[in-house]
C-alpha cells in the first residue's frame, strides 16, 4: 500500500507503463467525490453505482503512466487539519507525491472537485502542468449554494475517527478557506483562468453540483480551452477516450513554428 508522509499520510496508486519517449508524460488523476475524493470513486459513486464514463486508471493506463491519489482524510489518506489549510495544502500533497516519484512535468485530469484541485496546480506550478482535463467541474451558483454546506458535513461525517480531536474551529476554517468566497470554481479566479497558457479540455457538467454554465464559462475564459458537452454514457465511450487521448497527445506537441 503506497503512502507518503508529507505532514500527512497520502495514499497513491501507480498504473500503466513507466513514462518514456514512447508513452508521453504521466497523468495525475484527482478523483470526484467532493472532499471524500478517493481513487475508487473513478469507478463508482458513493452509493456504489457504476460510473457512466470509462475508468481512467484502466483506460489511460493502457499507454501512459497514471498516478491516482486519495485526498487527505479520504480513502486511505490521513492528515491533521489546521486553521490555515486550504487549496494550497492539497496542491502541496499532489506535488509532494509527484516529487517522490521523480515526476516533473505531467498532465492532470480532475473530476468534480478534482477540477478545482487541478486548476490550483496550474496556478501553483505552471511550469510543471503540461495540460489539464477538467471533467464536470464544480462551481458556485445560487442554486447549489445550500448543497456546499451539506457536502462538507458529509465529508466530516464520513471521516470518522480521522478527525477525532480536531477542533471545530479548524474545521470551520477549512470550510471557509476552501469555499468561503462562494464564487466561480472556488480555487482560482476568473482573472487567473484568462491568463492560463496551458491547454485545457473541459468535459462539461450537467447537474446542480457540476453546473453547465460554469463549464462553459471556463472554456470561454481560458485562451487555449476546448469543451465537450456530450461525453457521458456507453454511447460516448469511444469518443470520450479518443478525445482525452488526442488532447493529451496534442498538448505535448511543440507550438507551431517550434518543431
UniProtKB/TrEMBL annotation:
The keyword Hydrolase applies. It comes from the Bacteria. Keywords: Hydrolase. GO terms for biological process: glycerolipid catabolic process. Pfam families: Abhydrolase_1 (PF00561). One of its GO terms (molecular function) is triacylglycerol lipase activity. This is Alpha/beta hydrolase fold. PANTHER family: AB HYDROLASE-1 DOMAIN-CONTAINING PROTEIN, HYDROLASE, ALPHA/BETA FOLD FAMILY PROTEIN.
Amino acid at each position: 500500500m503506497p503512502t507518503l508522509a508529507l505532514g500527512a499520510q497520502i495514499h497513491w496508486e501507480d498504473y500503466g507503463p513507466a513514462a518514456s519517449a514512447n508513452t508521453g508524460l504521466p497523468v495525475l488523476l484527482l478523483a470526484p467525490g467532493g472532499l471524500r475524493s478517493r481513487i475508487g470513486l473513478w469507478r463508482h459513486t458513493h452509493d456504489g453505482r457504476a460510473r457512466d464514463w470509462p475508468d481512467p486508471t484502466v483506460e489511460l493506463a493502457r499507454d501512459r503512466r497514471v498516478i491516482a491519489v486519495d485526498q487527505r482524510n479520504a480513502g486511505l489518506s490521513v492528515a491533521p487539519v489546521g486553521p490555515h489549510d486550504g487549496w494550497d495544502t492539497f496542491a502541496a500533497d499532489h506535488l509532494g507525491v509527484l516529487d517522490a516519484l521523480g515526476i516533473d512535468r505531467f498532465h492532470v485530469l480532475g473530476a468534480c472537485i478534482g477540477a478545482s484541485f487541478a486548476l490550483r496546480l496550474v496556478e501553483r506550478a505552471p511550469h510543471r502542468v503540461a495540460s489539464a482535463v477538467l471533467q464536470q467541474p464544480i462551481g458556485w451558483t445560487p442554486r447549489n449554494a445550500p448543497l456546499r454546506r451539506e457536502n462538507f458535513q458529509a465529508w466530516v461525517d464520513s471521516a470518522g475517527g480521522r478527525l477525532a480531536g480536531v477542533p471545530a474551529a479548524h474545521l470551520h476554517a477549512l470550510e471557509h478557506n476552501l469555499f468561503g468566497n462562494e464564487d466561480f470554481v472556488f480555487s482560482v479566479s476568473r482573472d487567473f483562468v484568462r491568463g492560463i497558457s496551458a491547454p485545457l479540455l473541459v468535459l462539461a457538467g450537467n447537474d446542480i453540483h457540476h453546473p453547465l454554465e460554469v463549464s462553459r464559462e471556463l472554456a470561454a475564459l481560458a485562451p487555449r480551452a476546448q469543451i465537450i458537452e456530450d461525453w457521458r454514457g456507453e454511447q460516448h465511450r469511444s469518443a470520450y477516450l479518443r478525445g482525452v487521448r488526442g488532447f493529451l497527445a496534442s498538448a505535448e506537441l511543440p507550438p507551431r513554428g517550434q518543431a
